[in-house]
Design brief:
This protein has two helices and three strands; from the N terminus they run βααββ. By secondary structure, the chain is an alpha+beta fold. The protein has a single domain, classed as Histidine kinase-like ATPase, C-terminal domain (Heat Shock Protein 90), CATH 3.30.565.
Length: about 80
């Protein structure tokens, strides 16, 4: 299993940078690339919109684990859990 991780600054360009990271990690020919890029973009967008920014806490973290038949993507941010709504 390959595991890759890295920070993503939480700003208006974060979703784009997350997609670029996923593409670099998986490679452009990976069968799950499109879906994984989409999920990364959505998760990072949520992190930017709903976590606490500023005060040195404005970085999200991507973790991608790649196995032969699956890809797992985790996005964490410095914010506290909140209720939807």
């Amino acid at each position: 299993m390959k595991i890759r991780a890295g920070p993503v600054r939480q700003d208006q360009y974060a979703p784009h940078r997350a997609r670029l990271a996923v593409r670099a990690w998986l490679g452009s020919a990976h069968s799950a690339l499109y879906d994984t890029e989409l999920v990364a973009s959505e998760l990072v967008t949520n992190a930017v919109r709903h976590s606490l920014e500023g005060a040195g806490r404005d970085w999200a973290r991507l973790l991608l684990a790649e196995a032969p038949s699956r890809v797992r993507l985790v996005v964490t941010d410095p914010g506290n859990p909140t209720s939807p709504g």
